[in-house]
Every structure is written in structure tokens, then in C-alpha cells.
Amino acid sequence: MRLWIGVTPLGLMLAGLAVLSGGTKLAAQEKKIEVQVGDTAPGFEATDDKGMVWKSTEHVGKKYVVVYFYPGDFTPGCTRQAQSFRDNMNTLNGQGIEVIGISGDSANTHALFKAAQKLNFPLLADENGNLAKSFGVPVGAGGEIRTKDADGKNVVLKRGVTTVRWTFVIGKDGKVIYKNTRVNPVDDSKQIAAFIEKLEKK
Predict the structure, then answer these.
(1) Alpha helices in the chain, H assignment, sequence order
(2) CATH number, domain at 154?
(3) pLDDT tens digit string along 78-91?
(4) Catalytic residues
(5) How many domains does the chain have?
(6) Which residue ranges in the chain fall short of pLDDT 50?
(7) With a threshold of 0.85, does the pTM exceed it?
(8) pLDDT by residue (tens digit) across 140-155?
(9) Distance between CA atoms of 89 and 189, rounded to whole angstroms?
(10) Is 177 in contact with 37 (CB distance < 8 Å)?
(11) CB within 8 A of 46, min separation 6: which ones?
């Protein structure tokens, strides 16, 4: 004698609907995010170069927050971009701007890069690329780079993911007010300063 435990045509139909529903949810989750100017910026937190947790909720709303994504520490373009923000920090701070750099490098690698370039702003680790994805920034495979640390010692650094160079500015109301997907590493900080200056005059 065969026993059928809880399996009815209606049950099978409901199970099928559940599978379809799950597939729909999965497809929705995989849909590419596109954060545009005017959208509320994603809330986020990540480990910084000091090993501390940096939370956007503790910064957004108090100042203009620059969130710039870059491919990786110690690479030529990224080094020039970081140096530009470092050198223009007095101007940016005077405009009420806070700067955050984000890449797929680890917090330890960020610490080495920050020390080597004497950077005066935080770098956040996004090793799995989830933070970048929340802003819609394209993410590729990671890699490694051979370079020298602040003491001149040779080091091999591994990067979890590689993100495209995009820059955002979050306004004091928590919304994205600036988005640049064609960033010039050297001019990035100056373009932001000019944008905020123009915005403040309105």
C-alpha cells in the first residue's frame, strides 16, 4: 500500500507557484542597480584603513560626502587621483566636503597605500564588491600588484575585486547630487570643488 503524505494536485500547484515566485524574486535581486542624480544614496558601512567600521549614517546629512570608487591601490591612475584629493583637501574641507575612497582592496592594503601617499582621508575596503554594486558601479575580477610600501620594501598585494572609476557626491539631504562615470583621476577633486562652489551660489 502506498502512502501519499500531504501531496495533492493543489499542493503540487502551490509548490510550483512558490518556485516561480522564488525565481521572480531572484531575478529581481539580480537586476542591475542604477543610482542616478536625485536618488536617495544607499546607506552603507565598511571597514576603513584603520580597521574601524565607517558608517554612512554618521556622516551623511552633516556635510557633502564624496564617495569615489577606484580600481585599486598603488596603481598609477588611482595614485594620482588620491594625491589630487590629498592636495586639494583644504579647499574641499572649507566647502564642507568630506571625501571617502573605496576599492576592492583590503583594509591592510589601504593602510599601506595611505601611509605611502600620506593621504588625509579614509579609504574603505569593499573586497566582495557589494558596496560598489549598491551604487551601480561595474565590478570585475580582482588581481594582485607588486609594489613598495612606505618603507621601500617590496610587497605583493591581492585585491578582492576591481571596480570601475566612478565618483558620486551625496548632498546634505542624503540624495545623490553629482555622478561622474568618466572620471579624470587628476581633475576629479577640482571638478567636485567647482561643482559645489557653483551649487552654493544658487
Answers:
(1) 9-30, 76-87, 89-94, 107-117, 130-134, 188-201
(2) 3.40.30.10
(3) 999 999 999 999 99
(4) 78
(5) 1
(6) 1-30
(7) no
(8) 998 888 887 767 888 8
(9) 9
(10) yes
(11) 53, 54, 102, 124, 125, 126, 131
